[in-house]
């Protein structure tokens, strides 16, 4: 490969910023914008500037190399997709508000792909006809579209984002297990090479259907996932999976309807007490307030809160706010309802494992006060779909060893699923078996959040001075700083050329009229692992080499610096 040209800061189309962007809540968002890596184009939609694009491409390259290493074949499928296959699997409707749907000029329905199970299934149906064509693993690294309810946290949760998605096709369950195992190993190598601290946790398959599923989580405060971690053994699971392990959902362990106390005082505390959870936690949900008084509670899920309805019922001064979660986890993404004229009147998913099967527990309130009652599906409320609501508290026993579990926040960076035959059944994917009879294919689907991994890395590796990239993903190997006048610039450019000739990727701060202080601050913000300064002793041909992470410094001649860095 040809050596990369030296990247000069004087020509770089990106400016560093002194201040955090006003809308930024999390560290990676602040730093990636301030260091000139990304710019916001619209809510959840981001542009990658030159340095950011380099980091993104590095992540992409590592993912590609490890996918190729397990024999996966790279393809590129469209992002603009026809409706029909998604109708066949039911996902055109099931995907809900997250799916970007659109029409062409003739009125035909299309979508922007959020994930591609259907299209890959059809591709394999078209290309593979015999058992000899199996197993096969296909992948792509492609832009995905999801109309996320709350795109926040910069590129951690985009509405347009880059994902590596792959799909495995096998004849037998054992084959699927092997393809799944290959992905698990590839993901371990990917995240190790990226320099991410990560955990593999048991997960439930959720909307994907299928059986076995694990998530790769990067522990970080900014994460939106909560996982349970055993301080004593190797058990780790997302909160949903651990609940199923700790308290099986068979209806027998739950109190009968009448045993559930109904609070008569309309306060959050009594409602929380009836649910047996801390008040701060229960209602991560949404609160409707009038004059500071709570008059209703609901769970917004991915729905827009209907302010028209809120106003109609509670008057024009009603406000809606979200309550935060503390040392407690409710998978609110699984609980969906909305505030209507009767408080929380329509339930999309609400089947709490603590209440008897066939009934649901509606927590809500209306003008007449707060209520938590046990109610019957069909009679008392409209059910769209049942999903288990999962509640795990800090200190719940580890299903393996009984030690009290810890709850931690993390970013989901990868997810692997054994889908089984769900998509093959819906789209009739068969190949001819050895005996000449058709065999239904079994599938897996596997995702890595490529753009999200950039933000996760920034979260985990940044310090108070700025970004601090691991070597393999950094936008350059060395950041040369010309700290002074013409003499320093000359030396900086000379050493930059030599480093580039030795195969290093070099960023050089050759900006005229920018003080050494500003250049040092910028070099720390940008986060290239090695910083080489042409400064005080430039006349003698001596440079200072600084390690971005440890801050260790040493003085070196040009030749020594090249030998040290290459
Ligand atoms: P999340 O729980 O964060 O919404 P998900 O479970 O919906 O993610 P998957 O369908 O499992 O996501 O997609 C595979 C991977 O794509 C995820 O593990 C994550 O790393 C990444 N990803 C998903 N949604 C986004 C997004 N909105 N922005 C950036 N990356 C995303
Ligand atoms: Mg999601
Ligand atoms: Mg998830
Ligand atoms: Mg997932």
Describe this protein's structure.
The chain has about 575 residues and is of the alpha+beta class. About 25% of the residues lie in helices and about 30% in strands. It has 15 helices and 32 strands. Strands 4, 8, 9, 10, 11, 12, 13, 24 and 27 form a nine-stranded mixed sheet that branches. A six-stranded mixed sheet has the order 1-29-28-30-31-32, sandwiched between helices. α2 (about 50-70) crosses α12 (about 450-460). The longest helix is centred in the N-terminal third of the chain and has 22 residues, at about 175-195. The two termini are about 15 Å apart. About 40% of the residues are buried. Mean pLDDT is about 80; it is low at about 205-210, about 245-285, about 300-305, about 325-375 and about 375-390. The protein binds adenosine-5'-triphosphate and magnesium ion (3 copies). The site of one magnesium ion has 2 residues, from β24. One magnesium ion (MG) binds near residues 412 and 415.
């Amino acid at each position: 490969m040809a050596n990369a040209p030296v990247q000069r800061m004087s020509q770089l189309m990106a400016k560093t910023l002194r201040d955090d962007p006003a809308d930024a809540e999390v560290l990676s968002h602040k730093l990636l914008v301030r260091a000139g890596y990304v710019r916001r184009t619209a809510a959840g939609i981001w542009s990658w500037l030159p340095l950011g694009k380099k980091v993104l491409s590095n992540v992409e390259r590592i993912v590609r190399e490890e996918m190729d290493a397990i024999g996966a074949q790279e393809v590129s499928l469209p992002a603009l997709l026809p409706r029909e296959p998604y109708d066949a699997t039911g996902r055109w409707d099931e995907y809900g508000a997250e799916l970007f749907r659109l029409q062409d000029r003739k009125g035909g329905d299309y979508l922007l792909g959020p994930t591609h199970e259907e299209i890959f299934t059809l591709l394999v149906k078209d290309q593979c006809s015999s058992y000899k064509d199996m197993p096969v693993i296909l992948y792509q690294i492609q832009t995905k579209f999801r109309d996320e309810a709350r795109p926040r946290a910069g590129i951690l949760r985009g509405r347009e984002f880059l994902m590596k998605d792959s799909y495995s096709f096998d004849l037998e369950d054992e084959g699927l297990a092997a393809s799944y195992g290959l992905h698990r190993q590839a993901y371990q190598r990917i995240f190790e090479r990226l320099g991410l601290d990560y955990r593999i946790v048991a997960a439930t398959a959720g909307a994907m259907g299928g059986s076995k599923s694990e998530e790769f989580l990067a522990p970080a405060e900014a994460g939106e996932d909560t996982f349970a971690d055993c301080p004593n053994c190797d058990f780790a699971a997302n909160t949903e999976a651990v609940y199923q392990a700790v308290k099986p959902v068979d209806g027998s362990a739950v109190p009968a309807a009448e045993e559930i106390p109904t609070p008569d005082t309309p306060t959050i505390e009594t409602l929380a007490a009836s649910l047996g959870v801390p008040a701060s936690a229960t209602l991560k949900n949404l609160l409707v307030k009038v004059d500071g008084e709570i008059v209703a509670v609901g769970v917004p899920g991915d729905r827009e809160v209907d302010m028209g309805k809120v106003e109609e019922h509670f008057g024009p001064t009603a406000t809606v706010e979200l309550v935060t979660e503390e040392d407690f986890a409710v998978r609110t993404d699984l609980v969906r309802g909305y505030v209507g004229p009767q408080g929380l009147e329509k339930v999309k998913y609400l089947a709490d494992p603590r209440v008897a099967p066939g009934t649901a527990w509606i927590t809500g309130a209306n003008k007449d006060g707060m209520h938590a009652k046990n109610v019957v599906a069909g009679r008392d409320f409209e059910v769209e779909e049942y999903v288990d609501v999962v509640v795990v508290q800090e200190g719940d026993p580890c299903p393996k060893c009984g030690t009290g579990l810890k709850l931690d926040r993390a970013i989901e960076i990868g997810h692997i699923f054994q889908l089984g035959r769900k998509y093959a059944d819906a789209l009739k994917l068969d190949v001819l078996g050895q005996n000449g009879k058709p065999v239904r294919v079994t599938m897996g689907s596997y995702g890595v959040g490529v753009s999200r991994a950039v933000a996760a890395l920034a979260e985990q590796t940044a310090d108070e001075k700025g970004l601090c990239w691991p070597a393999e993903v950094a936008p350059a190997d060395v950041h040369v700083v010309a700290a002074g006048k013409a003499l320093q610039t000359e030396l900086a450019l000379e050493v930059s050329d030599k480093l580039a000739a030795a195969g290093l990727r070099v960023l050089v701060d050759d900006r005229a009229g920018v003080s050494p202080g500003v250049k040092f601050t910028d070099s720390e913000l940008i986060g290239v692992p090695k910083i080489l300064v042409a400064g005080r002793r430039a006349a003698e041909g001596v440079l200072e080499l600084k390690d971005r992470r440890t801050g260790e410094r040493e003085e070196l001649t040009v030749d020594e610096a090249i030998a040290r860095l290459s």
